[in-house]
Amino acid sequence: MTKLPVTVPGLLVAFSVVFSLAQPLRATAADEMTFASWGGAYQDGIREAWMKPFTKESGIEITEDTNPVIARIKAMVDIHKVEWDVVTAGGASLMQGAKSGLFEKITPDMVNEENVLPEARNDYGVPSEIFSTVIGYSTKAFPNGGPKTFADFWDVKKFPGKRTLPDKPDTVLEAALLADGVAPADVYKTLDTPAGMKRALDKIRQIKPDVAMWWSSGAQPVQALASGEVVMALGWNGRFQSGIDSGLPIAMSWDQSVAQVGYFMIVKGAPNKAQAVKFLNYIIRPDVQARFSQYVAYGPVTPKSIPLIDKTRQSRLPSTPERLSNALFMNINWWADHSLAAGEAYNTAMQQ
After folding, report:
1. Alpha-carbon distance 4 to 6, whole Å?
2. Do residues 111 and 284 lie in contact, with contact meaning Cβ atoms separated by under 8 Å?
3. What is the pLDDT of residues 189-205, one digit of tens each?
4. Dihedrals φ, ψ of 91, to 5°?
5. Which of 86, 100, 211, 268 has a CA positioned 20 to 30 A from the CA of residue 93?
């Protein structure tokens, strides 16, 4: 039988085909992305709950960065040198960036959000977690139970002692109107009018003599409660929970809250958009959402996640059905339109 000659190149091609078929699919050099958030326990939780498992499942490597302020994102987009693919922010920054054209629009074809709470959805960001502004109080000052509602927070006769409030108006204006008897469904309709804005600011002026400090960092109200400088505070549930976990004499009230949503956004012109889209689809899977609460006391944005979380941990979270039934979701569209004017008015009220 005549043997056909086999060239070396032919052998190499054949070997390459057989070898490639025998190997599992692996990430290529391009399978990477860059994620920027705010550091600390929050970014640590994202890394452990989401980023490491995502890399293990997908093969996509994630490089981390911090401090994704709008000004830095805008500078990257403006000069067409975008270094970040996915960034995180609260609703106000999301809307600010979206209006400035800094984020990619998230379409249903890109990310399936059918499991996400409708109140949390946004065209320019994928909801990541829910956190709430609640009342934290000193169990030393109130050993038999402290303030339960925002009206109680404003009632200095029934609950005497110094308070602390944020130095920015978002969630405080809402709490003030709720304390003044405005129904949750009417809060933003009321704030939309000059008379309604004045009503909220007057309510804040009413309590001002009992405000010991206006906090700018989420750790400050926890420290002030622990030291006895104040007996109650408006602050973030995750911060209060961390204080409770470390043994500080602090408790929270869940009878009323203002819920906020964290978002993950794709920066306009992201160099690794396809990988970013895969990551966003990953983090809103109910089983993946449920994992985050093991690290930070923020709740999932997918109701199907709740049954996957043990009961003890559920008691720490703001997005259980019971707690959401008492919550007002912060209207980020309203804040996008009114943040500047509201901030100026609030600063004036603090200083008067």
Report:
1. 6
2. yes
3. 999 999 999 999 999 99
4. -60, -40
5. 211
What is the separation of C-alpha 268 from the centre of its chain, rounded to a whole number of angstroms?
20
pTM above 0.90?
no
Question: Length of the chain in residues, anyone?
Answer: 352
The amino acid at residue 178 is: L
Residue 174 in contact with residue 335, Cβ under 8 Å? no
> Shortest CA distance to 174 belongs to which of 195, 203, 194?
203
The predicted structure's pLDDT at residue 4: 41
Strand, helix or coil for residue 1 = coil
Q: How far is CA 246 from the centre of its chain?
A: 22
Sequence-ordered strand ranges (E) for the chain = 32-37, 61-66, 86-90, 126-138, 163-166, 211-215, 232-236, 250-266, 327-329
CA gap 320, 301 in Å, rounded: 10
Question: For residues 136 and 157, what is the distance between their CA atoms, to the nearest angstrom?
Answer: 18
Residue 184: both structure tokens together: 């949750």
